[in-house]
């Protein structure tokens, strides 16, 4: 896949002296869903804002479809749709008026058929004549998505799209995002919900303290960094782990009924065979076992902690 | 040039006027009628004529100018302040639209609204006093120039203000006093010589004087000077706006 967004040596220092972005290098591939993860204040929104033209970069270069975001801002911005994190809407406007206004801002002539189709897709059609202040939080979020899609962008930025949204609506949003990706739109989303990135993203970027710690294909990241846990449910509880098993760095469950062994599945030898032999030699027997892959959340926490 | 974006901002802003028709149009008409009742009827009976013009007719250009200044400033300042306040300004920053186009949209709509209100006030005034317009071309020129210039000034205030209080400070504490002291209700020739000289430092004197000249061919200062001072103020506003967008002052980090 070719890159649609290319970021080189991007840094952003605010007037307060805060270094929000530090030497970011990143390529976003055309047609992918890229999830940007990071704790609060990591620089996610600053990065998005800089690409979209809301914030000026201090140093570095950003190109969108080969066009420079500063020198050729008309070309780059016309390709991008942005759904901001905050529910920022013109409270006194109707859904129909505000979505059409957004299309006009992007230099597009009115297209009522297209706007109707977007509003229907987002189940907003029945609300088209309602003032935005009358809508629920979830509906307001959909209005922001409709506004961002009104000029038919090739790239969609979703800054925390499901923040404060209930579970059902969140799943609806995921479906909307998938449909957009299937229609060829490149999607970059920031999220606090690791589950969201795990569910939807093709690639993951992790940002912390303004630095991009890693970017990786989600599946590769999961298999590369993901540790597996083997839980052995014992027939008889044990009070402590015998000395002869110390080499395996086992954990004992609080009730003593299970032993947990963590291993790296990338290794050629996982150590499971030896563990089982040592358990038998120690006269510890188990009635059941299960393995579990580390979640993206655990990977994220471990990376950010480092 | 993104004309579609300019059109969208213009239509969006004008729609706000029609939505708040009472506040936007009816209230200036009522307040102007009250001015006529208080100043025209009550005081006018004691001040019969100024430079050969009846007092009621004399104050009409000043009243139009008073509304034009205050409406231009409030419309333009609120127009750009509200997206900043509500956060929707992100749309302007992320759209393929230049600063010139943003200014054209907001200032164009604000100037249009104030011109409409100016015309309504003229129409209202015609019910109270006999009006004559000696130089219609110059009357329109002053109307346009003043509304555009003070809409630009209002745009600057809207960018500068970081709260509703600040949005009101300049119109209330500077513009309204300058307008009342700028010969709206009197000729500065009626003042003692010292205060006549002080009044010449008030830019509103030039606006009111020039505008009144286009009606009755009477003026406190030279018409060319009036027009030049207004043009100069417009130029100064344009320079400040250029600087705001160049530096991103209070609109972009």
**Low-confidence sequence ranges of chain A:** none
Shape of chain A: elongated
Give the termini separation of chain A. 31 Å
What's the helical proportion of residues of chain B?
over 70%
Count of helix runs of chain A: 10
The count of DSSP E runs of length 2 or more, i.e. the number of strands of chain B, is 2
Mean pLDDT of chain A, nearest integer?
Answer: 88
Radius of gyration of chain B: 19 Å
Structural class of chain B: mainly alpha
Based on the coordinates given, report the CATH architecture of the largest domain in chain A.
3-Layer(aba) Sandwich
Order of helices and strands of chain A: EEEHEEHEHHHEHEHEEHEEEHEH
Mean pLDDT of chain B: 87
Counting DSSP H or I runs of 4 or more residues, the number of helices of chain B is: 10
Written account of the structure:
The complex is a heterodimer of chains A (306) and B (253). Chain A has helices at residues 44-52, 73-79, 95-105, 112-121, 137-149, 167-182, 194-200, 218-225, 272-281, 296-305, and strands at 3-13, 19-29, 33-37, 59-64, 67-68, 80-83, 155-159, 186-191, 203-208, 211-217, 227-234, 251-252, 258-264, 286-293. Chain A is an alpha/beta fold. Chain A has 2 domains: 3-223, P-loop containing nucleotide triphosphate hydrolases (Rossmann fold, 3-Layer(aba) Sandwich); 227-305, Alpha-Beta Plaits (2-Layer Sandwich). Chain A has a 6-stranded mixed β-sheet with strand order 6-7-8-3-9-10, sandwiched between helices. In chain A, helix 3 runs parallel beside helix 5 (137-149). Chain B has one domain (3-247). Chain B is mainly α and 253 residues long. Chain B is 77% helix and 2% strand. Chain B is built from 10 helices and 2 strands; from the N terminus they run H-H-E-E-H-H-H-H-H-H-H-H. In chain B, helix 3 packs parallel to helix 6 and helix 5 crosses helix 6. Chains A and B meet through helix 2 and helix 3 of A and helix 1 and helix 4 of B.
């Amino acid at each position: 896949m070719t890159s649609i967004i290319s970021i080189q040596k991007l840094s952003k220092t605010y007037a307060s002296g805060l270094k929000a972005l530090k030497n970011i290098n990143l390529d976003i591939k055309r047609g992918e869903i890229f999830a940007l993860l990071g704790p609060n204040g990591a620089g996610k929104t600053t990065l998005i804002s800089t690409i979209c033209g809301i914030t000026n970069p201090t140093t570095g270069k950003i190109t969108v479809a080969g066009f420079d975001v500063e020198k050729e801002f008309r070309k780059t911005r016309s390709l991008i749709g942005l759904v901001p994190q905050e529910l920022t809407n013109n409270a006194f406007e109707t859904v129909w008026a505000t979505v059409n206004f957004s299309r006009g801002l992007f230099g597009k002539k009115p297209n009522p058929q297209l706007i109707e189709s977007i509003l229907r897709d987002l189940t907003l059609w029945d609300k088209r004549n309602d003032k935005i202040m009358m809508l629920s939080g979830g509906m307001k979020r959909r209005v922001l998505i409709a506004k961002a899609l009104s000029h038919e962008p090739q790239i969609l930025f979703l800054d925390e799209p499901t923040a404060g949204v209930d579970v059902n609506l969140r799943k609806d949003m995921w479906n909307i995002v998938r449909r957009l990706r299937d229609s060829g739109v490149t999607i970059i989303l920031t999220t606090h919900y690791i589950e969201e990135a795990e569910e939807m993203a093709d690639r993951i970027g992790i940002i912390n303290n303004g630095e991009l710690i890693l970017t990786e294909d989600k599946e590769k990241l999961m298999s590369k960094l993901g540790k597996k846990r083997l839980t052995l449910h014992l027939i008889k509880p044990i009070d402590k782990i015998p000395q002869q098993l110390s080499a395996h760095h086992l954990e004992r469950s609080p009730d003593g009924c299970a032993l947990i062994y963590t291993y790296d599945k990338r290794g050629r030898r996982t150590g499971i065979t030896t563990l089982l032999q040592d358990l038998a030699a120690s006269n510890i027997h188990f009635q059941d076992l299960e393995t579990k892959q580390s979640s993206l959340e655990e990977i994220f926490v471990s990376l950010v902690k480092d | 040039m993104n004309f579609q974006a300019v059109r969208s901002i213009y239509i969006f802003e004008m729609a706000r006027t029609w939505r708040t028709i009472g506040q936007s149009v009816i209230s200036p008409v009522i307040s102007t009628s009250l001015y006529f009742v208080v100043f025209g009827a009550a005081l006018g009976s004691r001040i019969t004529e100024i430079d050969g013009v009846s007092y009621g007719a004399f104050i009409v250009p000043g009243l139009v100018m008073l509304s034009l200044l205050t409406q231009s400033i409030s419309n333009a300042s609120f127009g750009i302040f509200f997206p900043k306040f509500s956060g929707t300004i992100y749309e302007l920053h992320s759209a393929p639209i230049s600063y010139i186009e943003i200014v054209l949209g907001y200032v164009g709509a604000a100037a249009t609204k104030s011109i409409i209100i100016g015309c309504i006030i003229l129409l209202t005034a015609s019910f109270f006093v006999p009006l004559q317009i000696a130089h219609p071309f110059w009357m329109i020129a002053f109307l346009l120039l003043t509304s555009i210039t003070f809409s630009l000034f209002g745009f600057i205030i809207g960018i500068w203000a970081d709260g509703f209080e600040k949005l009101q400070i300049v119109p209330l504490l500077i513009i309204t006093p300058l307008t009342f002291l700028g010969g709206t209700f009197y000729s500065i020739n009626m003042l003692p010589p010292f205060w006549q000289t002080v009044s010449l430092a008030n830019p509103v004197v030039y606006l009111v004087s020039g505008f009144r000249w286009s009606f009755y061919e009477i003026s406190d200062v030279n018409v060319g000077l009036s027009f030049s001072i207004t043009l100069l103020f417009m130029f100064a506003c344009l320079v400040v706006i250029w600087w705001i967008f160049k530096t991103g002052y209070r609109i972009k980090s």
